[in-house]
Amino acid sequence: MGARCVLLLFFGTVAYWQPALLWFWASLSALLFSPFIFNPHQFAWEDFFIDYRDFIRWLSRGNTKWHRNSWIGYVRLTRSRVTGFKRKTIGDDSEKAAGDAARAHRSNVFMSDTFPCIIYTAGCFIAYTFVNAQNGVNTELTVNSILRLIICAIGPIAVNAGCLLVCVGLSCCMGPLLGMCCKKTGAAMAGVAHGVAVICHVIFFIIMWILEGFNFARMLIGLATMVYIDRLIFKFMTLLFLTRELKNDHSNIAFWTGKW
């Protein structure tokens, strides 16, 4: 939420720049950097970098064997607040971190989580179409900003889906063989998929910038609209298609290692 708000504030600053906005960004910068400069809470540089190292490990662990503190565990726990957990257990250690949350009613989830996202997405979409409307120009250029937005928003999802299909095929066919010589086959497969996803998003952000004629302000609002459209798609998929979460983590490990 914070990154998305800063992105929209940055767009507003770039699109409607005036010197008075320097005071706002100076105040915001002071709030960000004052803890590092004045150190009121006895900030330790070594601990900061150690925590950053642990954060990187937190993002990548949990795909070869279960770990209590991992990104995938956090995602499953967050998703279970909507889907709930299945009651069936197998006595695995990974089930200890799971709760007994029941599935929330879809109307409650829609009104509290999905509907606000629809409002945010609609607001960004209106702003994006407005800045691409070419109001007050003498020579109009034939453009299709909505098609441009659809391509850049749906494109990463399609590429990531294809990458996951390739990864699950490799893990099923070669995962058990690779596991004999490499103990971190699941982590390697997940790392490749996550790396492709990051590179794919960066490429489509650049494509949006190129399609907007290297206009930085229009690229920023296009980027924000892409993010909100993707979030809305995933929220609808979670609401309509996902079943309850398994309490154990075997399905995630089997997906990456091929050991079903």
Automatic annotation (TrEMBL):
<dbReference type="GO" id="GO:0006075">
    <property type="term" value="P:(1-&gt;3)-beta-D-glucan biosynthetic process"/>
</dbReference>
<dbReference type="GO" id="GO:0000148">
    <property type="term" value="C:1,3-beta-D-glucan synthase complex"/>
</dbReference>
<feature type="transmembrane region" description="Helical">
    <location>
        <begin position="216"/>
        <end position="234"/>
    </location>
</feature>
<feature type="transmembrane region" description="Helical">
    <location>
        <begin position="146"/>
        <end position="174"/>
    </location>
</feature>
<keyword id="KW-0812">Transmembrane</keyword>
<dbReference type="Pfam" id="PF02364">
    <property type="entry name" value="Glucan_synthase"/>
</dbReference>
<feature type="transmembrane region" description="Helical">
    <location>
        <begin position="20"/>
        <end position="38"/>
    </location>
</feature>
<dbReference type="GO" id="GO:0051278">
    <property type="term" value="P:fungal-type cell wall polysaccharide biosynthetic process"/>
</dbReference>
<dbReference type="GO" id="GO:0005886">
    <property type="term" value="C:plasma membrane"/>
</dbReference>
<feature type="domain" description="Glycosyl transferase 48">
    <location>
        <begin position="2"/>
        <end position="177"/>
    </location>
</feature>
<protein>
    <submittedName>
        <fullName>Unnamed protein product</fullName>
    </submittedName>
</protein>
<feature type="transmembrane region" description="Helical">
    <location>
        <begin position="186"/>
        <end position="210"/>
    </location>
</feature>
<keyword id="KW-0472">Membrane</keyword>
<dbReference type="InterPro" id="IPR003440">
    <property type="entry name" value="Glyco_trans_48_dom"/>
</dbReference>
<keyword id="KW-1133">Transmembrane helix</keyword>
<dbReference type="GO" id="GO:0003843">
    <property type="term" value="F:1,3-beta-D-glucan synthase activity"/>
</dbReference>
<feature type="transmembrane region" description="Helical">
    <location>
        <begin position="113"/>
        <end position="131"/>
    </location>
</feature>
